[in-house]
Inverse folding.
């Protein structure tokens, strides 16, 4: 990834412009966020010290509906990163045709150094800081890196306290007990699994017995691994920050999942220090080998799924990749230079704005249920997720084939940019 994620997003837009049916003036408008609020957040920590944090909320584009996007807590958050992520949310909601625009929020902090109470105070202060710009019909935050259903509960409570009544619809990704939806936690991994199946159908290949390597075994990676495994694919490698496990015959995904859910690391699993009730003797297969995250990326597999961090497929390692397809579960895992090389090598890439859209689709379903004051069973949520992400996949492939575009990312971007531009054209330029 370019050092500046915003430049990276602009480069992706520029690559799509020559194929997109978008007026140049409108296209230029789409390169600028509507607004970004920067907030200063003094918080009295549990230690008694006062620490001053900085946070942002960027609202990128609202032509298609209320702003939508997560909030991340991370030491490397910058205004430009938040703006780039808000742009990507705009293209993602447009591509999967949700009636939303795009937004993102971030707070510069190291959550590992904060207590639960510190995190609650920081979240509440941040919510107060951005409170005037969010709302069920205005801008609806959700979890992102290092934020979770508990964070959303604190945001919802803080907002509701100011309003004087409960407003569950102001955030999505909430706990079930306060208006969350079944299926939200595993939605992104389920979407990744669904688009991988669709890709194989499109390529006229059978997913069963294909080999898959997944970088990252967190929320997205572990759920994608479980569902792909259940679907008959062979997950041969996965990793976390401690390193990767590899077995060419396939990993015992269920045992590894139980180990990680119990707080274990992948390297401990490989070393035989298995938590979560599974033992090596219970494992269906041999002991896996320990390899590095870098080695995982270049394994000879059918599908590579980066599901950890940004910028892992770069100009430095792209020539060593041996997978025939890449499904981008993480946001921005491929740099612009590496992306061009993948296209030249005819390696199919399902872009992040499509592959990981399952999360925002189910967030939308949560928001709709809150508006209806009605809750749906898990089967309804999963069926609607499958219908929506499947339709977005089919439209992307149709665009790719009929316009003879260089790759699926260009197809996804042209669709998203055309939809957003059309909304701007119909609405016109105020005043
Ligand atoms: P997570 O924190 O649950 O898991 C991240 C995983 O990546 C962990 O296994 C972690 O150990 C591993 N990891 C962290 N740093 C690493 C490194 N440097 N090298 C290798 N592995 C590393 O996060 P998540 O929610 O699973 O999100 C993963 C990616 O998917 C992120 O890019 C996120 O933006 C994207 N995403 C998540 C969602 C969602 O609903 N959770 C939605 C859309 C996109």
């Amino acid at each position: 990834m370019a050092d500046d994620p915003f430049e990276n997003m602009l480069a992706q837009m520029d690559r799509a412009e020559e194929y997109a049916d978008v007026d140049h003036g409108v296209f230029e408008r789409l390169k600028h966020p509507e607004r970004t609020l920067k907030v200063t957040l003094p918080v009295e920590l549990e230690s008694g010290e006062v620490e001053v944090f900085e946070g942002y909320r960027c609202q990128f584009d609202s032509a298609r509906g209320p702003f939508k996007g997560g909030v991340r807590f991370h030491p490397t958050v910058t205004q430009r990163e938040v703006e780039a992520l808000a742009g990507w949310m705009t293209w993602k909601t447009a591509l999967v045709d949700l009636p939303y625009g795009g937004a993102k929020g971030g707070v510069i902090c190291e959550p590992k150094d904060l207590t639960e109470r510190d995190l609650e105070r920081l979240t509440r202060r941040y919510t107060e800081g951005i409170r005037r710009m969010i709302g069920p019909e205005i801008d609806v935050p959700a979890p992102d890196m290092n934020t979770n259903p508990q964070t959303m509960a604190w945001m919802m409570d803080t907002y509701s306290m100011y309003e004087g009544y409960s407003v569950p619809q102001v955030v999505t990704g909430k706990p079930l007990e306060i208006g969350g939806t079944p299926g939200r936690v595993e939605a992104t991994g389920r979407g990744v699994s669904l688009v991988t199946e669709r890709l194989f159908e499109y390529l006229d290949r059978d997913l069963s017995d294909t080999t898959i390597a997944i970088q990252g075994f967190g929320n997205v990676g572990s759920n994608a691994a479980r569902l792909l495994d259940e679907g008959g694919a062979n997950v041969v490698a996965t990793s976390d920050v401690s390193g990767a496990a590899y077995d060419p015959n396939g990993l015992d995904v269920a045992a590894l999942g139980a180990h990680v859910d119990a707080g274990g690391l992948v390297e401990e699993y490989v070393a035989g220090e298995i938590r979560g009730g599974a033992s090596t003797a219970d494992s269906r297969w041999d002991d896996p080998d320990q390899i590095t995250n870098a080695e995982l990326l270049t394994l000879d597999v059918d599908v590579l799924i980066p599901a950890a961090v940004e910028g892992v497929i770069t100009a430095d390692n792209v020539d060593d990749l041996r997978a025939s397809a890449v499904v981008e579960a993480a946001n921005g895992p491929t740099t612009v230079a590496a992306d061009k090389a993948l296209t030249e090598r005819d390696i199919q890439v399902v872009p992040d704005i499509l592959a990981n859209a399952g999360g925002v689709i189910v967030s939308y379903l949560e928001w709709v249920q809150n508006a209806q004051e009605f809750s749906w069973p898990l089967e309804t949520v999963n069926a609607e997720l499958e219908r929506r992400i499947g339709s977005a996949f089919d439209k992307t492939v149709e665009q790719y084939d009929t316009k003879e575009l260089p790759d699926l990312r260009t197809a996804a971007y042209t669709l998203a940019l055309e939809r957003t531009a059309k909304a701007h054209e119909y609405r016109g330029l105020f005043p």
Observations:
- DSSP finds 15 helices and twelve strands in the chain.
- The first strand starts at residue 35 and ends at 44.
- The domain at 187-355 is CATH 3.40.50.720 (Rossmann fold).
